[in-house]
Amino acid sequence: MVDAMGDGVFTVNAQGHIVSWSAGAARITGYSSDEVIGKSCHILEGKNCKGFYKLTEFLENPTPYPWGICNQECKVSAKDGRELYLYGNVSVLRGERGAVIGAVGTFTDLTSFILAKEKIQVLEEQARSRDSFQQMIGRSGVMQEVFRRVRLAAQGDVPVLLTGESGTGKELAARAIHALSGRKDKPFFAINCSAIPETLIESELFGHVKGAFTGAIRDKTGVFQAAEGGTLFLDEIGDTSPLLQLKLLRVLQESEVRRVGDEQSVKVDVRFITATNKNLKHLLTTGAIREDFFYRIRVFEIPLPPLRERREDLPLLVSHFVAEGSKVCPRAIHDIAQDAMQQMLKYAWPGNVRELRNAVDHAFVTAEGGCLTALDLPPEIRASASSVSKSSIADPLTPEQQAERDRILDALRKTRGSKTKAAKLLGYSRVTLWKKLQKFSTPEISSQDR
Predict the structure, then answer these.
(1) Beta strands in 370-447 (DSSP E)
(2) Are 136 and 176 in contact (CB under 8 A)?
(3) Quick one: pLDDT at residue 198?
(4) Tens of pLDDT, residues 193-230
C-alpha cells in the first residue's frame, strides 16, 4: 500500500539513518532503496532547505515539536542533478517506554508546480514590462521607441538632451537613464534652471567661497560636486543665459568646476542630462542658445511625445493613476465610468501626462461613489466634450423634450445650479442628469456644490 502511493515515504532510526524508502520516494528522487537504506538522512538536506534540515535536531530533541515537523519545504538534488522542490511532514516514533526510536516522514514533489508558477510570474513580469518602464507607462509605438533610446543612453556616458512639451515625463526619463546606468548607486540631482534666479543659479551649480558676494557668509558646495560620480539633470536648459552656457560648456569639455570667487578648479565626474520644452534650433537663430553649447549637450537626443500623439496609452495611464489614488483615498474607488473615459479620449491634453494625473486626482476629490464619472472631471474637460456634443446636434427638440428641458432648468434654478440636488429633485442619478444636459444642448451651470 505504501509503495502504491504517489508521495514518498521513509523512516529513520534514532541515529538518523534511513531504515525504509518507498517506491514513491525512489521515483521522485531517483535514488533506489538499496542506495539510501543505512545511509544518513542528510540526503534530504539541500541548499535553501527550509524544513528537513531540522531532522537530526528533531530526533535529538523532539520536545519543541509536539506535532512533528509539519508542512515543511525542502529543496534537494535528485540523482540526475535536477533540483527538486519537496513538501513534507515528519513525526517521531517512540518505543514502549516512550524513548525516541526513529521517525517517519512523507514528502510530495511540487517541482512541476513551482516551475510552472515561476514561468507564469516571468511571463506576467514581461507583460508588465511592455507597458511600463522605470515608472514610465505606455504600450504605444512611440513610447516603446522612447524606452529603447533610454536603454541605449544608459549604456553610455555621453550628454543626453530630452525634448518635449511640458508634462511629457522628461525628468522620469532622466531618472530612468540614471537608474539603468553604471552610476545608479551614486547621487542623482535634478535642477530646474527656470526656477532659480539668474543671480543665484551659478552659485547653486558651481558653489561659492565665503565672501564671494554679498550674503556669502560661508563656503558652499555646488551640485556638480555634490553629484560626484552620479548624474546631474538640468531641466529647462533653454532658459539659461549665454554666459552660463559658456561656463557649463567648460564643465562638459574639461570635467572641472570653479566655485564663484575661487581661484582653483576642481575635477568632477558627473553624467550630464538636459531637458527643454522649447525649440532650441529656433533659439540658435536668435542667439539665445550658443551653437557650441547646443551641439555639446545634444550628443544623444530623446524626444518625448505629447499625450495627444499616444492616445492608446491613455486608458493604461488612467488605470495606473486610479490604482495609485485608491491606495491613499479613504473611500473605495477602483474604477472609472465609460463616459468619463470617452471624454478623456476626446480632450486635447495640452498639459500632457501631468494634466491627466491632476484630472484623476481632481476626480477623486469630487467623486461620491465607488466609480469616477464624467461629472467628476475638471470643468475644462467636461466643457471640451460638451462643445463637441453640441456642435453635432442638428435636429430641433420635440415638444416632450422641450418640456423635460424646461423642468431640468427649473430644478437647476431652484437648487442654485447644484446638479446633485437638482438630480435628486428630478428623481435622476447625477450621470442621467448630465447626459440629458448634453442631449438637450443645455449650457452647464457653473457650481462648486457637488
Answers:
(1) 371-372
(2) yes
(3) 80
(4) 988 888 788 888 998 888 777 777 788 888 999 999 99
| CATH T-level topology, domain 140-303 | Rossmann fold (3.40.50)
The average pLDDT across 113-134 equals 67
What φ, ψ does residue 101 adopt, rounded to 5°?
-115, 0
Q: Which CATH class is domain 312-439?
A: mainly alpha
Rounded to 10°, the helix 338-346/314-328 angle is 130
Q: Which residues touch 128 (CB under 8 Å, ≥6 apart)? A: none
Q: Say how many CA atoms lie within 13 Å of 265 toward its Cβ.
A: 9
Cα–Cα distance, 29 to 45 (Å, whole number)? 12
**Domain definitions of the chain by residue range:** 8-109, 140-303, 312-439
CA-to-CA distance for 423 and 153, rounded, in angstroms?
Answer: 55
Domain 8-109 is of which CATH architecture? 2-Layer Sandwich (3.30)
Please give the full DSSP string across 171-222, using - where no structure is assigned.
Answer: HHHHHHHHHHSTTTTS-EEEEEGGGS-HHHHHHHHHEE-TTSSTT--S-EE-
Count Cβ atoms below 10 Å from residue 155 Cβ, excluding itself. 10
